[in-house]
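Saturday, quiet lab. Running sequence design on the C-alpha cells for the scaffold JK sent over.
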C-alpha cells in the first residue's frame, strides 16, 4: 500500500527550512502532499495563491509531490486525500509543546488512524521561521540566507506594498 504523507503549514512564505523538510520527507514516502493552510483567522502576508505559487517556484516538479491548499480540519483533508501520516518539522524546544498538542489532537480526531512524524530541523533551519524572514525583510535586511533566491523579488515587492498600506 502506498504511504501518503501530508506536510501542512502556512508557508508564509516558504523558507529554506521548509524546503529541507520537503526534500527529506519526499524521499521517505511514496507521495507527499504539501497542504497550504487557507485559514482566514490566521493573518498571512501572502494570499494562499501567492504562497502556492512561491512553493511551485522553488520545488522542482516531482510526480511524488502535490501542492494544494486546504481549509478546515486537517484530518478531514487527509481523509479525502487518503493520507495517514502528518509531517512536521521540529526546531527548538519552543516548537515542542505546540507540536505535541497538535499531534495528540489529530490522533484523537482521527480515532488514532493518523500518525504524526517529526523531522528535526537542519542545523541551518534550526532558528529559521517565516516570521523571521518577514521581520528582517521589513527592516531592509538581507534575507538571501533564509529563502530561495528566486523569491527575493516577490518578498521585496510585498514589503513595499505593506509599507505603502501602513502609510495610507
Ligand atoms: P504553521 O503555521 O502550521 O506553524 P509553518 O509554515 O510555520 O506553519 O510551519 C509548518 C511546519 O514546518 C511546522 O511543523 C514547523 O515547525 C515546520 N518548520 C517551519 N520552519 C522550519 C524550519 N526552519 N526547519 C524545520 N521545520 C520548520
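Result came back. Writing it out in full:
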Amino acid at each position: 500500500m502506498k504511504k501518503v504523507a501530508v506536510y501542512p503549514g502556512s508557508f508564509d512564505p516558504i523558507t529554506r527550512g521548509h524546503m529541507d523538510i520537503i526534500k527529506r520527507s519526499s524521499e521517505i514516502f511514496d507521495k507527499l502532499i504539501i497542504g497550504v493552510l487557507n485559514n482566514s483567522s490566521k493573518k498571512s502576508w501572502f494570499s494562499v495563491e501567492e504562497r502556492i505559487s512561491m512553493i511551485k517556484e522553488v520545488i522542482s516538479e516531482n510526480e511524488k509531490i502535490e501542492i494544494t491548499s486546504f481549509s478546515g480540519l486537517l484530518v478531514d483533508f487527509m481523509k479525502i486525500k487518503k493520507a495517514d501520516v502528518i509531517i512536521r518539522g521540529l526546531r527548538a524546544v519552543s516548537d515542542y509543546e505546540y507540536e505535541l498538542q497538535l499531534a495528540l489532537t489529530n490522533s484523537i480526531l482521527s480515532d488514532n488512524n493518523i500518525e504524526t512524524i517529526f523531522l528535526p530541523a537542519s542545523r541551518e533551519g534550526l532558528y529559521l521561521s517565516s516570521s523571521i524572514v518577514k521581520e528582517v525583510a521589513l527592516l531592509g535586511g538581507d534575507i538571501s540566507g533564509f529563502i530561495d533566491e528566486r523569491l527575493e523579488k516577490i518578498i521585496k515587492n510585498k514589503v513595499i506594498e505593506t509599507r505603502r498600506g501602513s502609510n495610507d
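Notes for JK: The longest strand covers residues 31-37. The two ends are 55 Å apart (CA to CA). Ask whether to fix the surface positions before the next round.
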